[in-house]
Design a protein that fits this description.
It is a single chain. The protein has about 300 residues and is of the alpha/beta class. About 30% of the residues lie in helices and about 25% in strands. It contains 9 helices and 13 strands. β4 and β5 form a beta hairpin. It holds the Pfam family NAD_binding_1.
């Protein structure tokens, strides 16, 4: 599954059918939490392990108990989780990931948060989307995780979008491949929340335009497509998307057809959005992130305007 390694630092919520009580989380005592995280860290030794790959990446010190409050299939290969995190010291920036500690599983997972920080603030909830893989944390999520399962999480990552109210307005270009959509969806949702705030209050950070380029094998593997289209329709002058499919074998629905391009995201499409006010966020397989970051550099985009993260 996608255990992220941060390479370059960067600057909607969903309804949950099952209600979790914060008091239930208290059953996971601080002593048990320490034992769980320390044991997992000591045993998590694989060469390609998330903890090793991200050893030099900034993490928060807080390790928080979490409870699974909802689970659903987001695609044939991806499972979506809602987690209740009652700990008020737990917070994250849009685009960051969590170390994911599972009782009885020695390997620590690393999964990007796909929800907005607003959902956590309002409901103490975060959302993950995990692709099936022959990796212990992903296998546990797909085969053993149930409602009320208890885990622990810790925030890390230098790939995020966290503008302050007085910051200069920036356009965003988000480039996603496969489950690399997760942190970029968090950024997209956060930008939408910021735009709502400014519209309602008349103050706050001014979001520029946002263009999402998102590529997957076929439309069934385009994650969160309805959430994305809802935001495009809510903010037609601010948010646009181009959804790409590389191996589509079935007919594309009429609803999706206006947004779909068959074939990979091209260099020209990205180059057309270059400006001095634009930040580029890229997340996907290493060859994809390497290609677009290099092309942007060759087009004289400042390195500090190119933020990317690789997943494996």
């Amino acid at each position: 599954m996608a255990c992220a390694a941060v390479i370059v630092p960067g600057l909607l919520r969903s309804s949950v059918g099952t209600i979790c009580t914060q008091a239930a989380l208290l059953r996971l005592t601080s002593g048990a939490l320490r034992h769980l995280t320390l044991t997992s860290i000591m045993k998590s030794k694989r060469k390609t392990d998330h903890l090793e790959r991200t050893a030099n990446v900034i993490r928060r010190e807080v390790v928080s108990a979490a409870k699974v409050c909802g689970a659903a299939a987001e695609s044939p290969s991806v499972k979506r989780l809602h987690l209740l995190v009652a700990d008020k010291d737990f917070s994250f920036k849009a685009g960051q990931w969590v170390d994911f500690f599972i009782p009885g599983v020695s390997v620590v997972g690393g999964f990007s948060i796909c929800s907005s920080p607003r959902l956590l603030k309002q409901e103490r909830m975060i959302e993950l989307a995990v692709k099936y893989a022959n990796h212990p944390p992903a296998l546990w999520i797909h085969n053993q995780c149930t409602l009320d399962s208890e885990v622990a999480v810790r925030v890390g990552g230098e790939f995020f979008f966290d503008p302050q109210p007085a910051d200069a307005s920036r356009n965003l270009v988000l480039i996603a491949g496969g489950v690399g959509i997760n942190p970029l969806l968090s950024i997209l949702r956060h930008a939408a929340d910021l735009h709502r705030d400014r519209a309602n209050k008349g103050s706050g950070y001014e979001v520029g335009t946002i263009k999402l380029f998102y590529s997957a094998k076929n439309t069934s593997e385009l994650l969160f497509k309805q959430n994305i289209l809802d935001l495009v329709n809510e903010f037609p002058e601010k948010i646009a998307c181009s959804l790409h499919v590389t191996k589509q074998t079935t007919q594309i629905s009429a609803e999706l057809q206006p947004y779909i391009t068959e074939g990979r995201i091209t260099e020209k499409e990205i180059r057309d959005h270059i400006s001095k006010e634009t930040l580029f966020y890229i997340c996907g397989p290493p060859p994809m992130t390497d290609f677009f970051s290099k092309q942007l550099e060759n087009s004289h985009v400042p390195k500090e305007h190119i933020c990317f993260e690789k997943w494996w």
